[in-house]
Amino acid sequence: MSSESSSKGPVIIITGTPGTGKTTHAQLLVEESPIPLKHINVGEFVKEKGLYESYDDEWQSYTVDEDRLLDELEPIVSAGGVILDWHTCELFPERWADLVVVLRCDHSKLWDRLEKRGYPLKKIQENNEAEIMEVVLDEARSSYSQEIVVELKSEGTEDLESNVARIVQWINAWRADRETSNVES
Question: pLDDT digit string (tens) for 9-58?
Fold first, then answer.
């Protein structure tokens, strides 16, 4: 392994049903991380860069142009040290991810969070059902190696702090592992 590839930070995907706390986790992780990480809220990235085909008024969401999104993200992800925060993860190539964190939340708490966001009832129901059915978790487990997929509860501040501390520990171990690899090669 070259020292160049080991100096890059990890690529962490934080995913979960809308309302599980992905963006809050990612923002806190950027602050707490022992190495610099860039947070990309993929939904915002899509809007800012115009990487969508259309807007669905009923669902209040964009139909993402997946090929253009991946093309835009490729150089950023290749540089490493990035957190991708999005409600889905199967789109991202397996080779991109060093860690996939799936945030989970009790569906009644999730309902309240989505209501506070002003989501239409149909969208709240669909997201709640997806959380109950473990849709995002199943997607992560079928798209990535089991060793890198971690399911974390995200129902309050204690969970948030504990989860970020666990991810920081993982980053330290990831970094130490790369430093050891460099010494051996």
Answer: 999 999 999 999 999 999 999 999 999 999 999 999 999 999 999 998 88
| Of 85, 102, 89, nearest in space to 26 by CA | 85
Distances (CA, A) of 162 to 32, 96, 111, 115: 12, 25, 23, 26
pTM exceeds cut of 0.85: yes
Q: Which long-range contacts (CB under 8 A, 24 or more apart) does 135-142 make?
A: 135/17, 136/15, 136/16, 136/17, 136/87, 136/88, 136/89, 136/102, 137/102, 137/104, 139/15, 139/88, 139/89, 139/90, 140/13, 140/15, 140/89, 140/90, 140/100, 140/102, 142/90
- Locate all alpha helices (DSSP H) within 58-153, ordered by sequence: 66-79, 107-116, 121-132, 135-143
Dist. CA 70–CA 61, nearest whole Å: 19
Binding residues for ATP: 19, 21-24, 117
Which residues carry a binding-site annotation?
19, 21-24, 117
All structural domains of the chain, each given as residue ranges with its CATH number in brackets, are: 6-169 (3.40.50.300)
pLDDT tens, 90-131? 999 999 999 999 999 999 999 999 999 999 999 999 999 999
